[in-house]
Amino acid sequence: MEKEPEDEVRVMDIRRATEGDAAAICALQQEIQALHAQGLPQVFRPPDTAAFSPEHVRSLLGAAGVRLWIAHVERSPAGYLYAEVARYGENAQRKAQSYVYVNHVCVTAAHRRAGIGRALMEAAYSWAREESVDAVMLDVWGFNAGAQAFFAKEGFMPFTLRLSKPLR
Questions:
Q1: CA distances (Å), 53 to each of 24, 25, 47, in order?
Q2: Which of 85, 92, 105, 149 has the maximum number of C-beta atoms within 10 A of its C-beta?
Q3: What 3 state SS string does 99-114 have?
Q4: Which residues contact 56 (CB under 8 A, 6 or more apart)?
């Protein structure tokens, strides 16, 4: 039986990012920055290539305790994840903590709901296990219901709640 075009499997590749991926990651970040600027214009600036430049991405790639992964679908960039290890010693108020913090996870609108976000998160979970940390943590903005639903399906629960009262 011949497959219908909509039944074709799209080839997905998730791998650690390299310096050659810096420009693609910057372009992907522009989409997520636009989403944030639209959702919270009083907080986020519109996309600007200088804000998350290829040079900045390259510096992250060489930083200790930092990882970036990139996702491709049929050889086209479809998403990325940027994370870092955080370790804090015990103090008078808190016990020692260690976690992988996910700074950015981005999947282009055209590729959402295809398993890319999950695959990127799996890469972060695997790294977290290698680093023997206690948890994976991230922040999600209140306006981003889609991201909240995705992370809830991934097993994330509220850890802290940050409130805001606008004064102007």
A1: 10, 9, 11
A2: 105
A3: EEEEEEEEECHHHCCC
A4: none
Whether 68 contacts 61, CB under 8 Å: yes
Token pair 């791998």 is found at: 15
Helices (H), the chain: 22-39, 54-61, 116-130, 145-153
Q: What is the pLDDT of residues 118-138, one digit of tens each?
A: 999 999 999 999 999 999 999
Element (H, E) at 77: strand 76-88
CA atoms of 19 and 23, how far apart (whole Å): 9
CA gyration radius for the chain? 17
Identify any residues that bridge with 84 across adjacent strands, giving them in sequence order. 66, 101
Domain ranges of the chain: 9-153
Q: Say how many CA atoms lie within 13 Å of 11 toward its Cβ.
A: 3
Whether the Cβ atoms of residue 11 and residue 73 lie closer than 8 Å to each other: yes
User: pLDDT tens, 89-110?
Assistant: 999 999 999 999 999 999 999 9
User: Residue 94: exposed, middle, or buried by beta-carbon count in 10 A (0-12, 13-18, 19+)?
Assistant: exposed
